[in-house]
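Q: Could you write out the predicted structure for this multi-component system? I'm mainly interested in how the pieces pack against one another.
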Amino acid sequence: MLISKKQIVTAVILALLVLSGQAQEPYRQYVKHSPGIAHASADVSGTYKYWKDTESINEGLMSNEQIWKLNSKWQDEPFDDSLHGGHVAMDRGEAVYNKLNTNDEFANCIGARNGKLDGLRANYYPRFNDHLNHVTGLEEMIELCADKQGMTLLNGSYDNSAVSVYIGSFSNSMPMNVNVSEGELKLAFERGERLFFMRTGWTNFACGTCHVTFSGKHLRGQTPTTYYGDAAHWPTYRVKNELQSLHLRFTECNRSGGTQPIAIGSKEYTDLEVYLTGLSNGQAVRQPSVRN
Amino acid sequence: MNKLITIGSVLLLMSSSSTAEEKPDNILYDEWLINKTIWPKPIENSGDFEWHEHRQDLSLWPTLSYSDKRDSTNPETVSLNGALNGNAERGKKLANNLVKGNCVACHQLPGASQFGNVGPSLELISYKDRDVNWLYQQVYDARVHNPESAMPPYGTHGVLSFQEMQDIVSYLKTK
């Protein structure tokens, strides 16, 4: 009952064929788009002029029909200094941060430069972490660094986002400036862009179906806004009374669009975060923020 | 005998390739729940979540996950064999149902409030003399008429049954 060489070779070839078949990318459909330019001014909705900076925000557009053009920017600090949930979250974030950072280990872990949190939101994250060997967002690092201090702050949880809002506030008014034109971030940006226009779910929608094709039009009572310039004010307090990180928002976007949500902090959501962050370059950081 | 071993090993390898149809490994999913799909709600002043069951099982269709090896669907061409056999009343309910048809999210329908306008208005569709087969195809899989169509393929994706799609076409033909 010997197996001949020929049979072994045949089995190996067949095994390789089967394995190569497995490695093949599945068939996907995409919404037509042109490659994104990593700057908020490259916005494709034609609304950039209404929200590019504080001076440009036109309150005359605050009617039901026009408000989408402001992309919720009228609600950003310092435009909305009312005591909304973003401020409450920032205070909570400060308290949790101080508890975590009694010996400066947390600040160092999160990437503080000379003990300062300035710019971490504007020009540091998302970032390729050599130690972890993957791209991480600020909220992923908050979870990991808090864990080292013996505190569980799950990525996307209220306290994690609150700490992120607090850290982000040290970047207030700085323009977002994350280099997505080289290295691992460039690859993540490109993967994120593919995901953004990839059609999935029962609806066969992509993110781009709502935010490009349907932008400015009505979906039931909603009007999808542009996806440019947003990463500069997340995590954000949403008027439905929920503090949301970008990844947590993705799980809600996915459900509304008929697509199965995936894990917060996953490579896929981080790639989308890198893509949206690149498209926010040039936009000033606003923390705390509020939007619908 | 040797031949059998070779065939056996090939079959074994083939069966391992059936993982291609399995669900991805990083979806928010609880197999013990009816709707499977779950979602996290932050708890105020806490580092944890409250988990909720979604209103439908979304894991049945391709996801954004890199470990999802299931192919997307190709457009399916269909035709009603024989006469249309639908119930316009049921069709109207489906058109306004959030989980099933939800036509009104994108289209204006007679008498509906808070309708969408990303698709053409259907308010006067019954006067437009659209062919019943064309309408059925449009609901079943609009990509057959326009490959770039944003409309969900209700039939191809198994969201609506043959009967439900006929009900909707009957509703659209009602003057």
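A: Regarding packing and overall arrangement: Chain B has two domains: 2-60, 88-174.
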